[in-house]
Design a protein that fits this description.
Length: about 70
């Protein structure tokens, strides 16, 4: 998935679930600057981090990648 799409999806879920960047970064064990880079599309999250994000948001990895899958099918 493109970094920008990951970032948009993660940011959207973060806001939907009521997390601040600081709170989510703390839960993930990463710095706010790294989370910011991911949300801006400047860094692709590693698979392990994607798994943690999905667990924290209580969504499936498929839900996090929904837009990506749709784009790939087109």
């Amino acid at each position: 998935m493109e970094e920008e799409k990951w970032g948009r999806r993660i940011r959207a879920f973060r806001k939907l679930k009521g997390f601040t960047q600081e709170g989510l970064a703390r839960e993930l064990g990463i710095s706010v600057s790294i989370l910011g880079e991911i949300e801006r599309g400047n860094r692709k999250p590693k698979e392990e981090l994607i798994t943690k994000i999905a667990a924290i948001f209580q969504v499936s990895i498929d839900e996090l990648t929904q837009d990506y899958v749709r784009d790939e099918v087109r």
